[in-house]
Amino acid sequence: MDQQELRAAVDEAFADTGADTPAWADPHPDREPLDEEYSRCLDPGKYRILAARADAWTRVLCGLGLAAAEPVGDPAGLWRRTPDLPLSEPVLLRPARADAVPLVFGFGAIDDVPRTVLVVGAGEPAVPVERLPDCGCDACDDGSAGLLERLDDAVVAVVTGALVHIDAGPDQVIVDTGESSSASNWPPSGASPEAAVEAARYGRSPHRVVSGPAWD
């Protein structure tokens, strides 16, 4: 199945899994956020749309036989490094292809409302690929469309084999999805992020790398 067909299948599943989590537009498209919006989230429950979208991906990937959902006996041991927020109810999707990279969904809370933060992870143990939302305050809210797009792009990067995650040490990370790339505290004395990603894709990186082939 090509990427467009896969996304279309997820959209169809999401009509069911997301029936109770409506989308929303940018609440302030023509103005700057108010000062008080930076310290509040009046409706954290709306971010459950992210968990609903993750559920749609799980349904489609398992339904197509590309992966199987496995129980997670030790959620704390699922991640390479302890996440900076508590995550619960993790979902581990193991690809049918043995040498492909597993996909992980971890769920956190905004203001104690469960399943309102989503971390998309990859590998075993897993590394974070995307965390949504970045903040969760009303000031940073620009609608749900961008969040769902980032979620989809992160999952597609894992499933298509485009993902390269390079870990040179705590907080020294490159995440490249093939469409976008980010580098955090990358060592200035080392190779450029672009060169580091190229080396990782060819199996020449001296660092810990999460990368693998497409699931199908």
From TrEMBL:
<protein>
    <submittedName>
        <fullName>DUF6226 family protein</fullName>
    </submittedName>
</protein>
<feature type="compositionally biased region" description="Basic and acidic residues">
    <location>
        <begin position="1"/>
        <end position="10"/>
    </location>
</feature>
<dbReference type="InterPro" id="IPR045773">
    <property type="entry name" value="DUF6226"/>
</dbReference>
<dbReference type="Pfam" id="PF19736">
    <property type="entry name" value="DUF6226"/>
</dbReference>
<feature type="compositionally biased region" description="Polar residues">
    <location>
        <begin position="178"/>
        <end position="187"/>
    </location>
</feature>
<feature type="region of interest" description="Disordered">
    <location>
        <begin position="176"/>
        <end position="216"/>
    </location>
</feature>
<feature type="region of interest" description="Disordered">
    <location>
        <begin position="1"/>
        <end position="33"/>
    </location>
</feature>
